[in-house]
Specification:
A six-stranded antiparallel sheet has the order 4-3-6-1-2-5, with helices on one face. It starts with 12 loop residues before the first strand and ends with a strand. The longest helix is centred in the middle third of the chain and has 14 residues. The radius of gyration is 22 Å and the shape is globular. Helices cover 18% and strands 32% of the residues. The N terminus is likely disordered. By secondary structure, the protein is α/β, with parallel strands linked by helices. InterPro entries: 2Fe-2S_ferredoxin-like_sf, 2Fe-2S_ferredoxin-type, 2Fe2S_fd_BS, Beta-grasp_dom_sf, Cbr1-like_FAD-bd_dom, FAD-bd_FR_type, FNR_nucleotide-bd, MRET. This is Oxidoreductase.
Length: 374
């Protein structure tokens, strides 16, 4: 995913050798990097995480985030990357670097992860759109390797059949693990002779999937496959995530078991806001950002903290505005906020005073926060 941060937070970068480069479709490609022995500990990662690549394009230096398709047990670090448009910096990344070249790569990060449970019987489903397959592919390879009792179902949406990234690898995994990995492809811009497999992955499609694909559970005659779902992984564009997450929730999956990763800027809430807040006006705000102290006044609290600071042109880091990425994480030093539902912070972090500015409704006349996390 391309990083939308106005300024990259401090990260540890290392030069890694490009070991493999492969064009997957007309606008997607993969890169594989060698991890030298002296950097193995720094590049230890969990399935579902990502790294930042630092590279030049058209005279500027870019910091872009890309999810790993490799699983932790695999030797090298592999990424899936999309060229969004003709002038995209990722096009230069593909054409300017050759096998044997060195690229600056950050140490792994991200919280789109799952706790491994190799001794349990689990059912995990994944929804992916386009290049959103990357972290889910990492998860599924890792689960198939470490969890012999876990069943996996993948519902993968793309525009056309010739535009499916990693299809060969996915099909090979499905062939190797026929009894517990099932994949279904959906196409939004191509007729494939089956109306069920045509169209976007959305809330209506979830209902059809439940009723047509996840009914009979051979291991439990009294329940359906959908009843047995333990975790849901969703990765793609914001509207897709919102639609699918709410559909899964309305069909009985607890929010804590629905995990998502966003691949573009998204300004809406994933789940509807269910609470009204008292009006606050003329709110004094102090904050520390990139070693600078700022003071400003918010007219009221109708909008959340991040959105108001961005309107006032402060370079607050963000990527999603939806409580997913954690880019706007900060520490609440004074004042009160209501922290809405988010996919990023743990309960322990919330108790320690950490908040996400994008999901914070200000509830005090004075507020002080620190974005310079240590």
């Amino acid at each position: 995913m391309e990083n939308l941060l106005p300024k990259e937070k401090q990260a540890e970068f290392h030069l890694l050798k490009l070991a493999k480069k492969q064009e997957l479709t007309k606008n997607t490609f993969s890169l594989e990097f060698e991890i030298p022995k002296n950097l193995k500990s720094q590049f230890k990662f969990e399935a579902g995480q990502y790294v930042t690549l630092k590279y030049p394009s058209k005279g500027e230096m870019y910091y872009n985030d890309f999810s790993m398709t490799s699983a932790p047990f695999e030797k090298n670090l592999s990424l899936g990357i999309k060229i969004n448009q003709e002038e995209s910096s990722t096009k230069d990344l593909f054409h300017d670097f050759e096998i044997g070249d060195f690229v600056e790569v950050s140490t792994p990060k991200g919280r789109f992860t799952l706790v491994s449970k190799p001794d349990e019987f689990r059912t995990i489903i994944g929804f992916a759109g386009g290049i959103g397959i990357t972290p889910i592919l990492s998860h599924f390879k890792n689960i198939l390797h470490h969890e012999p009792r876990t069943r996996l179902f993948l519902f993968y949406g793309n525009k056309t059949r010739d535009g499916v990234p990693f299809k060969k690898e996915i099909d090979e995994l499905a062939e190797q693990h026929k009894s517990r990995f099932h994949v279904h492809y959906f196409y939004s811009r191509e007729k494939v002779g089956n109306a069920f497999l045509e169209g976007r992955l959305d809330e209506k499609k979830v209902g059809l999937i439940i009723n047509q694909l996840m009914m009979i559970d051979d291991t439990d005659e009294e329940s359906t496959l959908w009843d047995s779902v333990d975790e849901v992984l969703i990765c793609g564009k914001g509207e897709m995530i919102k639609s699918l997450a709410n559909a899964c929730f309305h069909h009985g999956i607890p929010k804590k078991n629905i995990h998502f990763e966003l691949f573009e800027e998204y300004n809406d809430d994933i789940y509807p806001q269910e609470k009204e807040f008292p009006m606050m006006e003329d709110i004094e705000v102090e904050f520390k950002l990139f070693d600078k102290e700022y003071k400003t006044t918010l007219k009221n609290n109708k909008m959340r903290l991040l959105q108001q600071l961005l309107i006032q042109k402060y370079p607050v880091p963000y990527s999603c505005k939806s409580g997913i990425c954690g880019s706007c994480e900060c520490v609440l030093e004074e004042g009160e906020v209501e922290l809405l539902e988010n996919e990023y912070l743990t309960q322990k972090e919330e108790k320690a005073g950490k908040i996400l500015a994008c999901m914070s409704v200000v509830l005090s006349k004075k507020l002080k926060v620190n974005f310079d996390l240590i």
